[in-house]
Every structure is written in structure tokens, then in C-alpha cells.
Amino acid sequence: MNYQLEFTRQYLKDLKRARKRGLEEEKLNKIILQLIKGEELPVSNRDHALTATYSDTQTYDYH
Asked: Is residue 49 within 8 Å of residue 58, measured between CB atoms?
């Protein structure tokens, strides 16, 4: 299953901030491409439900 990428303003702001911090953009791009292609993520990047105050909204987080 392939997905289509949609760039939101928030994503572009976050990307700009990450570039300023000198974070490795290549790692992010690799994960995004895997998600677009519908591939399974490595164990270190698998999604998981957020806990605490976010647990009731069914929000997920990727690392």
C-alpha cells in the first residue's frame, strides 16, 4: 500500500528547526520513504501509543 505525502506548515517548521539544530535529515527522509511505501519500520522506529495525558486521544508517536 502506498501513501501520498502531504507537507503541512507544521512539518515544514519542524524540518526547518531540525536543520538549524544540525540533526540528520537523511534519517528522517529514510523513515518517511518507508512510511510512504507502506513498509514495516525497524524496531527502533515502530509506533507506540502515547501515555499519560495523551492516552485517551489514541495519538501515536514515532522515534
From this structure: yes
Question: What b/e sequence results for 17-28 when a residue is b if at least 16 CB atoms lie within 10 Å of its CB, and e otherwise?
Answer: eeeeeeeeeeee
The helix (run of H) or strand (run of E) holding residue 48 is: strand 48-49
**Distance in angstroms (rounded) separating the CA atoms of residues 58 and 51:** 9
Answering whether pTM is above 0.90, one says: no
Give 26-62 pLDDT, tens digit per residue: 988 998 889 889 888 888 887 766 665 654 555 555 5
Q: Spell out the residues 6+ positions from residue 50 whose beta carbon is closer than 8 angstroms to its own.
A: 57, 59, 60, 61
